[in-house]
Each structure stands twice: as structure tokens, then as C-alpha cells.
Amino acid sequence: MSSSTQQPVLSRPAQAAAILRSLPGLAERLRASPPPSIEELRELAARLKELLPLIGDGTAAPALLSNAAARAALLNVLAVALRQLLPSSAGAPGSGAAREEELWLFCYTSVAFWGSICCSTLLTCKLSPLHSKRQLGFLLRLVRTQPLQCCALRLADVGPELLSLQQAEGEPQEGARGRAASNAAARAHDRQQKVVCGASDMLVQSLPLVFALAVPLDAGGGPPSPHNELGQLWKELASAFRDSCMLEHVARTLLLLLLPSQRVQPAGDGDSDNFRHASALGSIISRISWMASFSALADDAFPSATSEPSTLAAALLELLSGRCVRHAVLVLGVAALCAADGGPSYGLPSELLRHVPVIGQREGPDGARGEAVDLRHTNGRMVLESLAVENMVHVLRRGVRSRPPGRQGTLALLLRVGRLVAASGRAHLGACGGSAEAETTAHRECGGSACGSRSGSGCSSGSGSGSGRSGGGGVGRRQEQTTVPPQLPRPPATPGLQLRLGEAALRPLFNAALEGAMELCFPARPAERPERAAARVECWQLFAAYTRDVLPLPLDGGLPCSPVQHLRDPGAMLPGAPLPASPPPSWADALAGGWLPCLERLLHRGGEDPAGPEMRLAVSAMALFLPDGEPSTRAWRHFAVLLAYGEPRQAAVLVATLGKLLYAADLSALLESTTADNWIAAAAAMCALEGAVEEWEAASGAATFGAMTAALPAQSAANWVGPATGAQAQFPWWPQQLQALASSMRAEGWDADADGAEALAALLQSWEADGSVGVDEGELAGAEVGAKVEGGASLQKPMGLLAAWRHVEECSAVVKIEQRFALALVPVAEARGALHACSC
């Protein structure tokens, strides 16, 4: 053909405009009588196929949404085509021959497929605000054409046929021999091929549209008002999903296709099809789960049981409670766990698990992610897609406890997810060179507890006299605590496959799994099963593992959930008073789970990096910034229980860490710690010392604050760690430091505090001139007597120290901030000296 007769090549906008102009006429022909011919159906399918890439690249999407006739035509085409494919529809026109009927159905299937793909692509385009509003209106009209109901009816029709194939697989064929048997087998094979391929094709046609309809359920900005267009869409979508039972039909069809007997899919790669089906179903369920969660959160604004969010949340949770949906979610989730850690399958047949897709992404050397792959057919370093595990956790937490896997099975799965998160964090740390330190820390924390437990019986008798001073054998009680060894993840099920979750999924997945597990095993109950107590201990172990292996990663978001919330107030803990033989029940689980070394590590790292997550988590765990109650009392009781009943060496390390924090603390920063944002690690030690004084004064009502301040820190430290505290503890607050402190305070106008600091400096200078800066237990024993002696130039320790304290106290009795300085000055100096001997 000559160039003069060739048609000019249209630009992409011109192609889009031409197709959109033709759509209304083609749609009208589809609805006319007599029905369209096969050629007309083919032309319509071809037009839709040409339109699809133009929508995808943004060329046709704005024009289509701005063209009311084209929008209506596309919706009408899809509605008519879907209804023509329903089982109750009339047969094909014309001769009625089987071949022509199949061809006619194929053409309608093609129109429905390309129409649904065009609609789903249009709904997922990123558009301007104006076109996004029109996009929302198009989606609302699409929902009202009932595509979910039509797709569900088609899947409902194919379900019994798939079940019949499964039943026929197990029925023996009797009396069939030779050629007859061969012919019967061939017919059975052909029928199986037709049914299986037809069911898979229906999922291919349905899932993209269902996924596109679920796109608005990704409520990143929170739940919409039930009175605006988006809120109305949420409500109608929930009703459409509920009335059609679409998720149940999709889940049942997918499960039947995964059965070993349904492996004949010659029309394509059956594994690839099932991989795409599982991926789409997982994404849809994830969006509905988020929608349900956001709707439940909105109940605070709409507290009535009949309010829109409450009703919507209940309807969405009902969608996820269907038997097939739950089973599909559990199968996909357990398969992902088995691939990651090689653990048990909880009764799922291994033959079935071999055919369940495991979705992930290949990870490059630089950490970049590739396209989605089926992890069953890969090896090397891979990132496990978290959707399957997240959906499983959500369904387990919202499910009925009497249904499989039951209460204990649910608890086991949730704890297993927590272990996977910790192992993934450890792998990410290894990639950035931090795994060696984490492994050393884990070995020290876990191994130290176990070692302490083994050696406890041998040490308790030898330390009886030492523990008697503190009220009855605290060391022996500490060593009786049972330490449950941590359960490490098993090796991957596929040799050479290294799986881990992506960093972004770690914190939300850990929170959901640990919260769900704690709902099942906290608090302790009388006559409970040993498994429940062991699960509580493992919750503490998982929290410690998270703080060690995941928290150091540069993750966005808040802090993880914590079992600290389940610790109960142990009541008054008086220094030196007799203690019960065993810790309070909630604290026994914490000690066995490693909370003592975990808290020490958080405080230690918080002292090194005050702006780091460890600092914020330690402050949050101690609840020092909460307005209700006295922070000092909470801190004192928290430390007192851990140090009284914890493993002795771990307790000594905690005391040493507190001493180091106090030694390095800036006094002004220490006193200004009033909120969660400006607390420093040393404030925990300061609060504990203040709380001990307050506890004692509240109980006795007789001891003077000055005497308690001088006697308590060193004496209680000696009781906590026994011989670890020397008789000649040194005071690192040298006169030069106090004089510098006085100068800085006077420069800021705090003259009263400067006078107190100078008085203490003069006192300590006199001690230095005498050649001694220590204080022994005998001198501490006379502290209360010495408190009654007035201070002077020749005062002896510790009476001189107490007199100087009184001077500071009297000088700062007016301004609140000065009172806080006076309150902290001597306890800090005394505690630093008392704990300095443990700082090794």
C-alpha cells in the first residue's frame, strides 16, 4: 500500500478520544434487541483492550472521568456482560449449537474481563483532587451496579463442581478395564481441566475488580464521616461484601484449587495463577482489616451501639469471620511461618503446604527489593511479605476462641510470630553490622539468668547471714526464680533460603502479636495450666528480644507494646524490712522473663543516648512522667522488687548502672526532668531514692528527712548487693565540683542554693585536710544521732554532712525549683559514693 493511502498514526490522546466516543454506541448495542453478534462483541472487547493502557498511563483517565456518557457506557457494558455470564442467564442466540454457545460465552467473558480491568485500573490511578472526587463518584456508581454479587454468583456455581472433582478423586472405578478405562480417564481428565481452568479464570476476572473496590478501604487518613460521600461508600461496600459473601466464595475457590487433586492446569502455570490469587486475596483482606480497625477506633466519637462506625466495624469483622476466609488466612499464614522458621504446621497436610504460595521479594546486595516472587521456588536472601502473617494475626485476635485453632493454638501462633519478628530484627542488625553486639547481649542476659538459677542452691546457704540484715534471705529467694530458656526460631524449611520480614513491618506486627498473646495469658489465674504461665514468661522474653534486636534499628513510629502494663503495685517496700518468700505473681513472670537485665540495658543505653528509643522506652516502662501517683514511689517499688528478688549478679549490674548514671548526670538536667520528652536515665535512680525516703517516712512518721537521706542510699545499696558494696565508699563530689556548681548557680541568681553548695564544699575540704573522705558503716549507724547536732567548722562526718544538708534545706524553703535542688543535692552526692564501689 502506498504511503498516500496509509491512515495517519493518532496520538495517544486522540486514540483515547476516539475510543471514548465509540463507547456509548457500543454499550447501547449491547443492551439492544436482538442481542449483539459475536463480531460486535469482539469489537467491543477490542476497544476495551485498547483503552486499558491509555487509562493506565493517565492519558484517558481524566477524559473518561470528565465524560459522563463514556462513564455511564463503561458501567453499563460491565453490568450487562457480568449478568450474561450468570448461570441463570438465557442461552446463546441463533442455532443453539454447543460450539456457538461456547464462543458466545467466551466473547461475553472477554468483554466482562476487559471491562472490569478498565474499571479497576481507573479506580487505582493517581489523579488530581478534582478527578479524584469524580473517581469516588464513579466507584460509588460501580458498587451500585452489583458487580460483587454477580462475581460471587459465578464463583458459587463453580464451587460444587470443584468439590465433585475432589470426591471423584477418592472413588474407586469398578468394572472399567482396557480401552473403556482409558476413555473414562481421558473424559475425567478433560472435565477436571475444564472445571479447574474455569474456576481459575473466574478468579482472574473477579479479583482485580474486587481489589479495586477495596482500594478506598485503605484508610490512611482515618475513618471518614458517615455523612460524606466516602463514608457512604464505606457503608455500601460493607453491605455489598456482606450480602454477596464474596470473600467466602473467593477463599473457598482458592482453597479448592490448592488441593493436590486440582493440579491439572494446562492452560497456564497453575502455581503462578494461585500465587496471584493468594496475593490479591491477602491484599483485599488486609484492607478490610484496616477498615474494621479504623471504624472501631471511631467508636469514641460515636459511642452508641447503633452508630455508624460501630455498625460498620461489626459488619466488617463479620466478613472476616467466615469459615472459608478464616481457613484460607490461616493456611496462608502458617505456610509463611513454616517457610520462615521450619516450625510445625499444626496438622495441615504437608502435601497441601507444598502447593500454598509463599509471597516475598528478592533482596539485592544493597537491600533493594525486587518484584514479588513465590518463595517456594527460590533461595538466597529474601524478604517475606508480611501480609499473610498480619492477616493471620488479625483473624486470630478477632476470631471466636472455640473455633480452630483454639485458645492454645492461637497463643502458640501469636508467640511464634513474635519470635519471627525478633529473628528478622536480628538479621537486619547483622546486615548493618550490629548482630555481634546483640548476640553477646542476648547470651549474657539469658545465660546469666540460667547460670544464676543453677548456682542458686549452692549460694543461698553461704549468704544466709548477709541476707539476714535485709529481712530474711532475699538472696535465696532471688535464686529460686525459674528462668525459661528462650525459644529460638528453627532453621528455614527450604535449604539455602534466608527469610526475614521487612523493617517497616516489624513494629506493627510485633505489637499486634504481643498484644494478642497477652490478652490470652495475662493476668495469672488460680489453678491455671502451666502452658499459660510459660506463655507469660515468653511474652517478657519476646519483649526483651525486641528491645535488643529490633529497637536499635532506625524504624519510624512509636514504641512497642510492653508487658510492663501488667505489673501490679507490690505495695510498700521499706528499706531493710522483711520481705515475703516469693515475689508478687506478676513480678515473678517478669523476673523469669528477663525484665531485670532488660531494664538495666535500656537504662545503660539511655544514658549513652538520651534521645534514643531505649531512653524513651525505659522512661515509659517506669511511668515516671505520668501525672497520677508519685513517680518516685513507683520507681522505688519497681527497683526494689527487681533488686530484692532478681538474680544477684544482675541486680549488682543494675545498681552499678544506676551509680554510673548518677555519677555522670548533669544536676540541672536531672532536676528538670518532668515530662516524657526531657527525662534522663539518671532520673530513674533519683526517683527511686526519693521514693524510698518517702516510703519510709510515710510508714514510720518519725525519721527525719536529713537522717534518712544520709543513711538510706548506702545502706539500701549494701542490702541489695551484699559484699559488693565496700565499707569505705568514696564520694566523687569533690569540693572543687561543688564550688563550680555554686558559681554556676550564683550566676543564674540561685544564691540560696549556691550558699548550700559552698557549705558542703567547705565541709568536704575539711575532710580532705583530715586525710579521709570515706564513711564507714559505723559512722552511718550514728547518722540519726548526728542529725541533732548543729553544724560548725569542726563537725565530724556524717554529722557534718547532715548539718550541711540542713543548711541547704533551710536556704531553699521558698521557691519550688530551689526546693528540688535542695532535695537532690545531698542524695545525689551520697548515692554516687555509695554506688561507686559497684561501678566495675
UniProtKB/TrEMBL annotation:
Q: Where is the composition biased (Low complexity)?
A: 447-458
Region of interest (Disordered), residue spans: 445-496
Specify residue ranges for compositional bias: Gly residues: 459-476
Protein name as it appears in the record: Uncharacterized protein
Originating species:
Tetrabaena socialis
